[in-house]
Amino acid sequence: MQSERTRTLRPESLPASTEVGHWRVVERLGVGGYGAAYRVEDIHHPGVMLALKLALRPGDARAGREVVLLMDKAVHPNVVRIHGHGR
After folding, report:
1. Nearest-angstrom CA–CA distance, 48 and 36
2. CA angle, 72 as apex, 68 and 84 as ends, to 5°?
3. Was 53 annotated as part of a binding site?
4. At CA 51, angle to CA 47 and CA 53, rounded to 5?
5. Strand, helix or coil at 36?
6. Which residues form the Protein kinase domain (predicted)?
7. Residue 18 — left, alpha, or beta (φ > 0 → left; ψ -120 to 50 → alpha)?
8. Please, are residues 13 and 38 in contact by the beta-carbon 8 Å criterion?
């Protein structure tokens, strides 16, 4: 899912306008214990803004799956909805 360009960048410090898959980074929202979150725009649907979370340790696939499963089960106005996930 990552372009060749983003594979050489650190997940916690992507500059604005970096393209990751079909998303363009607008700004970093924050960094936590598991990953870094960014506000991104869908390249194929200009104006559609989403949040993208990138793992700080991409090799830890189990932790990533756990985050996706937990967030998918959480139904609350203050919890984001999962639109997709991948590697």
Report:
1. 20
2. 60
3. yes
4. 145
5. strand
6. 23-87
7. beta
8. no
The residue behind tokens 């050489």 is 8
CA distance 59 to 47: 32
Is-contact 28 38, C-beta < 8 A? yes
Phi and psi at residue 44, in whole multiples of 5°?
A: -80, -15
Per the CB < 8 A criterion, the answer to whether 16 and 27 are in contact is yes
Q: Are 36 and 11 in contact (CB under 8 A)?
A: yes
pLDDT tens figures, 13-38: 999 999 999 999 999 999 998 889 99
The token pair at 40 is: 């991104």
Supply the pTM of this predicted model: 0.75
* SS3 at position 22: coil
